[in-house]
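Quick start: read one record
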Amino acid sequence: MILGKSLTGIEIETTYPMYERENILFDVFPCLIYRRDEEGLFDINDLLTDFSILGEPGISEVGYLKSNNSEYVIMLHPCFRRRYSIFNGFGMIIPYLFGYYQENRLPSLKIALDFDRIMLSKDWSHYCRRERYYGPRFTNDIPANKEGQTAYVLNDADKFATHSYETDYYWENKKDNSFHLEVEELQVIDCAYTSENVLCKYVHTHYDRENSMFVHIDGAIRKYSEDSYLKRIVGNIKSRDLSKRFKLFRVDGKIPFDIWKSIIASYMEHNGTIGEYFNSK
């Protein structure tokens, strides 16, 4: 059966027991309309007054929240899923965010929900996904003397894993003495890529120089049309008017350095340039 189109414009065909309708989340839970902020995000503390996290980070699939007062299960935004497809499980970023939250290691957490799909709790299955990752560990080096854009081209293995070909890093000093980093993965366009849109992962973060700590990070998707993406490729990361951006998560407050790096690395899943850029050894 065809459920509709994904955010990339590709038709979704699945027999997985979900109920899909535009804004069905708010039809079933109208109170959530008033809980989202101006960026469309939901505070996890607020959500957990009425919902409970299903699964266990690091052991089983997470990304689903069960209502405490009904048999419905809501889920996180489909762009948290691998390749943005509802066929796939959620990416590495969700176990990290939920795990850090449950360990009280995040000062705050806001996340995006799937507005158009819900399911019944009896249809949710508790399954494990075993994975292991190899590669360099981060060091605590911050390229504090850097300004402007640096582009890293991915190797062939990373291109295959991420469907990206380049990662752009842009540092900028602000008048308030903060140091801002923007990171964007540029996607490969080839004959097999049939989407009418190009979705690129994007991170924005603030570093407080005076107190030597990161105080904000958010992850988003930049959505390009084919024409605007061709302009972005020959432009730079500051070309904000070429895309529509929607956020998937946000953390504000003092963020431990190791957690800050893990958030970027897990969101930019399988992207080896993260380790290269931050001088991992």
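The first strand starts at residue 2 and ends at 5.
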